[in-house]
Amino acid sequence: NEITNQLSRLNGKGWTDAAISDELGVSPITVFRWKKGMRTPDNFRSVLHMLDTLVTGKEFQRKEGVLISLG
From start to end of the chain, where are the E strands? Predict the structure, then answer.
């Protein structure tokens, strides 16, 4: 799926799952589950947009304390 593809692209650029999870405000296990196709985020489009932003090197703003997905 698109989330898995974007996570693979980020890993290929040197991003760790921990760094991705930190940027998205979710736990590393959530990123692991998305990458393995075990789960899909409830807010699929928002997560995909944020991953696209990370892949392209742009910055996005996230609200502190807001959990993106329970994964």
Answer: none
- Mean pLDDT over residues 44-71, rounded? 71
Residues 35 and 8: beta-carbon distance below 8 Å: yes
State both tokens at 68.
């993106």
Q: Which two tokens stand for residue 66?
A: 């807001």
d(CA 29, CA 35): 10
Per-residue pLDDT of 1-39, as tens digits, reads: 899 999 999 999 999 999 999 999 999 999 999 999 999
The Cα–Cα gap between 3 and 51 comes to 8
pLDDT of 62: 54
Phi, psi for residue 47 in degrees, rounded to 5 = -65, -45
